[in-house]
Design goal:
By secondary structure, this protein is of the alpha+beta class. It contains 4 helices and 6 strands; from the N terminus they run H-H-H-H-E-E-E-E-E-E.
Length: 206
C-alpha cells in the first residue's frame, strides 16, 4: 500500500513537472493577446493615411480651382461649371461623398475710390454660410491695379470606420491674382451649382 501511494505521488510529481515545462500553445496565447492591439493599430494607421491623402486632394483641388479661374479675363456659367468639374475630378470623390463637398469662388477689385467691390461669385454646395471677407487683405494682393480671386473648399470627410479619425471637416483657401485682366467678372450675377450623378461620376450642374 505504501509503495503504491509512493508510486502514485511520484507519477503526479512527474506529470506536474511535465505540464509546467510544456510550452505547447504559448505562441497562440501570446498572439491572442497581441493580435487585437496590432489590428487596431493597423486600421488606425490606415485611416490616418487616408485622411492625409484626402486632405492633400482638398488643397490641390482648391489650388486648381483658383489657377483655372485666373487664367481667364472673365467667366461665364459654362466656365465655372468646367472649373468646378475639374475640382471634383481632383478630389476623386464618389457621388455620395461629393454631396459633402462645398466649393466657392469670389472675385474682388478695388475701385478708384479705394473701395473693395465684389465682381464675381460662384458656389457649389451649401457648406459655406458666409462669403470670404476681404477686410484686412494685404494691399500687395488686392489693390487698385490688380484684383483678387479667392477659392475655398470644404469637405466633410467621413472615415471608413468613423472610429479613429471620425468625421473631420477638411478645408483650404487659396488667393490668386488675375493674369489676363485687372479683375475677373462672372457675368454680373452669382452662380449657384449643384452636384449631379452622371455616367462619368459626379458632375457640377450650374
Amino acid at each position: 500500500m505504501y509503495k503504491a501511494m509512493k508510486y502514485s505521488i511520484a507519477n503526479l510529481q512527474t506529470l506536474a513537472k511535465r505540464v509546467i515545462k510544456n510550452k505547447d500553445g504559448v505562441a497562440a496565447i501570446e498572439f491572442a493577446f497581441v493580435a487585437p492591439v496590432m489590428i487596431a493599430l493597423y486600421i488606425g494607421l490606415a485611416e490616418v493615411s487616408l485622411l492625409i491623402s484626402v486632405d492633400r486632394n482638398v488643397s490641390h483641388a482648391t489650388s486648381v480651382t483658383g489657377d483655372l479661374a485666373t487664367q481667364e479675363a472673365s467667366l461665364n456659367v459654362n466656365d465655372v461649371e468646367d472649373i468646378f468639374n475639374a475640382a471634383l475630378a481632383v478630389l476623386g470623390t464618389s457621388y455620395t461623398n461629393s454631396q459633402r463637398v462645398s466649393i466657392d469662388m469670389i472675385s474682388f477689385e478695388v475701385d478708384a475710390a479705394g473701395i473693395t467691390q465684389e465682381v464675381g461669385y460662384a458656389k457649389l454646395g451649401t457648406g459655406f454660410s458666409t462669403k470670404f471677407d476681404p477686410a484686412g487683405t494685404s494691399t500687395t494682393l488686392l489693390n487698385e491695379t490688380s484684383g483678387l480671386v479667392v477659392t475655398r473648399i470644404i469637405y466633410e470627410y467621413h472615415s471608413p470606420s468613423r472610429t479613429y479619425v471620425q468625421t473631420p471637416s477638411l478645408s483650404e483657401t487659396f488667393m490668386l491674382k488675375p493674369r489676363k485682366s485687372k479683375s475677373i467678372s462672372f457675368g454680373g450675377t452669382a452662380i449657384t451649382c449643384t452636384v449631379i450623378n452622371s455616367s462619368n461620376g459626379p458632375r457640377a450642374n450650374c
